[in-house]
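Friendly challenge for the regulars: who can give me the structure tokens for this chain first? No prize, just bragging rights.
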Amino acid sequence: MVNINELVAQAQAMQNKVKIAQAELAKQEVVGEAGNGLVKMTITCTKETRKCEIDPSLLKAEEKENLEDLIVAAMNNAKEMADEIATATMEEATSGLQLPEGVNLPM
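First reply, four minutes later:
Bragging rights claimed.
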């Protein structure tokens, strides 16, 4: 049988770990690239956009559509990296909580 006080203490410890992990994710940045680095998007692991870098060679009227596609691709690449880091960080923060069988926490 699970001791409810022990379970509450574990949940509180996990909640503190999650808060710390979320704060760290808000600070950690990733850089997504597209077009072999012609477009770079810097975002945090909480997906706040910090910077967009565009190679000057793309700043021509005839490159407009290509540039738009590269910006979207770079942002998607950055989001994928941020998601991977966030998932791993949150899994680490929530590990160790001994829940009774059949009880799951929403993530």
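The chain has a mean pLDDT of 88. The chain is about 50% helix and 15% strand. Your move, everyone else.
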